């Protein structure tokens, strides 16, 4: 049931339609409100008359503000009376105590946000000398009919307010002096201040709240933690990534290394790991895929790029190419080449492919596979449409590789559906550029001799 008007010191609720048969309230706090009315009124007949008027829809729009509820109530003959019911507001000191109680338990806030009045909050408040729900004599009537006690008009207003309380217990808190937005802002500020001081409350409070968590620290339910999210202070700004990775450690010491351990190789691996961690950090902090990341083997769909976490683990042979693509010292390149089972020429081609697209590009260079007929038919149609009849290159297909007849150009289809341009370099085919989903675009790159300075 939504109010209208501005949020804060006053809320106005549209007149409710007539209701027949059902009880006026279904919640325990709504029943507590009506009990306070029934215990306060001296004349039960006036209450019955008010209940009938409320059921008939005689109560107009209800205005709720601190300390007072107001509505115009009509008699059967159409005579209208302004009716008010006064409710005691909590003092500033009482609100301070109530806010402390609420922020001490995320469960209280969870219930309020779910439009429920948490019984434990009411009990805790009562134990602290605070009465949230009205009691005998707390609903003070004022009516234009000049009755000195609850009349049918103020009674009808109270019955109607019970329906509002069912839907939103913040209505009761507004009567007591705090609007919903003001109350939530104050709870958030109090929670943030407490977090800045290093905890939610005292040791006694923590112990009283119940569940033990990891390492003996108090725990809360997932529901409470989720509900308390709005109370948490904002996250700090992300750190700024350093301009460059840190210096790698030097392993040149007087102590002789263990047999089989090469300190220089370990220094290189540490430096490479530092470089890669720096590239990942730059990307994670929102810097996108940097040039350094691309050079390190990201490219279009490689082991780096935007998929560090999702990339499949590299084989030893693939990782050797990744390391060699950073152009280390010649002796390290020679060791990586030998260790991966490649010749120097094969390693040169492998590192060129890696720079264009990481592990995916390396697979296209070194592995063969047979694509399905549908993919080949689509590619043939696309290539046929891309050129005029007298300009269309003649292609000879073998598996996933399409070679241009009479030219040193070739297309290769990767298992991810992307097409890679290749050029003949001596007796070997060499990657000529990054991939493309469109085979015609990739072939145009190959026929043009590859992108200027690509991958070199």
Q: Tally of extended strands?
A: 10
Number of helices: 17
Strand order of the largest sheet: 1-2-3-4-5
Order of helices and strands: EHHEEEHHHEHHHHHHHHHHHEEEEEH
**Amino- and carboxy-terminal Cα gap:** 68 Å
Compose a concise summary of this entry.
With 456 residues, the chain is α+β, with helices and mostly antiparallel strands.
Walk me through this protein's architecture:
The chain is of the alpha+beta class and 456 residues long. The chain is built from 17 helices and ten strands. It has helices spanning 28-40, 44-55, 92-103, 106-113, 119-127, 152-167, 170-175, 180-196, 203-209, 222-227, 263-287, 291-295, 316-324, 330-339, 344-366, 373-386, 439-447, and strands at residues 11-13, 62-65, 68-74, 80-86, 140-143, 395-398, 401-404, 409-413, 419-425, 428-431. The strands form two sheets. The chain has a five-stranded antiparallel sheet with strand order 1-2-3-4-5. Strands 6-7-8-9-10 form a five-stranded antiparallel sheet. Strand 3 (68-74) and strand 4 (80-86) form a beta hairpin. The longest helix has 25 residues, at 263-287. The radius of gyration is 38 Å and the shape is elongated. The model is unreliable at 1-7, 200-217, 289-310 and 452-456 (pLDDT under 50).
What's the helix and strand layout?
Blueprint: E1 11-13, H1 28-40, H2 44-55, E2 62-65, E3 68-74, E4 80-86, H3 92-103, H4 106-113, H5 119-127, E5 140-143, H6 152-167, H7 170-175, H8 180-196, H9 203-209, H10 222-227, H11 263-287, H12 291-295, H13 316-324, H14 330-339, H15 344-366, H16 373-386, E6 395-398, E7 401-404, E8 409-413, E9 419-425, E10 428-431, H17 439-447
Antiparallel strand pairs: 1-2, 2-3, 3-4, 4-5, 6-7, 7-8, 8-9, 9-10
Helix pairs in contact: 1-6, 2-6, 3-8, 13-14, 13-15
């Amino acid at each position: 049931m939504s109010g209208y008007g501005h949020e804060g010191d006053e809320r106005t609720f549209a007149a409710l339609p007539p209701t027949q048969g059902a009880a006026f309230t279904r919640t325990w706090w709504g029943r507590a409100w009506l009990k306070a009315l029934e215990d306060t009124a001296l004349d039960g007949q006036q209450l019955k008359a008010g209940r009938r008027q409320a059921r008939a829809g005689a109560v107009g729009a209800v205005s709720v503000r601190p300390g007072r509820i107001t509505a115009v109530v009509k008699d059967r003959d159409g005579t209208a009376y302004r009716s008010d019911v006064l409710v005691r507001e909590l003092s500033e000191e009482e609100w301070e105590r109530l806010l402390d109680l609420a922020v001490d338990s995320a469960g209280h806030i969870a219930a309020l946000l779910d439009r429920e009045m948490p019984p434990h909050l009411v009990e805790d408040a009562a134990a602290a000398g605070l009465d949230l729900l009205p009691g005998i004599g707390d609903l003070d009537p004022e009516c234009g009919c000049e009755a000195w006690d609850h009349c049918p008009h103020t009674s009808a207003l109270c019955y109607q307010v019970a329906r509002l309380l069912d839907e939103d217990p913040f209505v009761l808190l507004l009567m007591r002096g705090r609007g919903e937005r003001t109350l939530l802002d104050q709870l958030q500020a109090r929670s943030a201040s407490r977090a800045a001081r290093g905890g939610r409350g005292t040791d006694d409070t923590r112990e009283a709240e119940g569940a033990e968590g990891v390492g003996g620290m108090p725990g809360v339910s997932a529901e409470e933690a989720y509900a308390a999210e709005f109370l948490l202070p904002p996250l700090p700004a992300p750190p700024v990534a350093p301009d460059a990775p840190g210096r790698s450690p030097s392993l040149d010491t007087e102590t002789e290394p263990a047999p089989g351990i090469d300190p220089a190789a370990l220094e290189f691996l540490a430096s490479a790991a530092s470089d890669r961690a720096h590239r990942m950090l730059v990307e994670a902090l929102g810097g996108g895929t940097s040039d350094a990341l691309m050079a390190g083997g990201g490219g279009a769909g490689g082991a780096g790029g935007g998929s560090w976490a999702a990339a499949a683990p590299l084989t030893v042979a693939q990782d050797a190419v990744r390391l060699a693509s950073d152009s280390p010292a010649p002796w390290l390149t020679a060791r990586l080449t030998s260790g991966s089972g490649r010749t120097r020429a094969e390693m040169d081609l492998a590192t060129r492919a890696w720079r264009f697209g990481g592990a995916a590009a390396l697979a296209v260079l070194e592995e063969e596979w047979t694509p399905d007929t549908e993919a080949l038919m689509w590619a043939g149609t696309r290539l046929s449409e891309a050129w005029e009849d007298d300009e269309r290159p003649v292609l000879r297909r073998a598996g996933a590789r399409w070679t241009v007849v009479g030219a040193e150009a070739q297309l290769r289809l990767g298992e991810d559906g992307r097409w890679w341009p290749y050029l003949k370099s001596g007796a070997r085919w060499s990657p000529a550029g990054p991939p493309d989903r469109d085979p015609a675009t990739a072939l145009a790159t190959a026929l043009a001799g590859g992108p200027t300075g690509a991958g070199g």
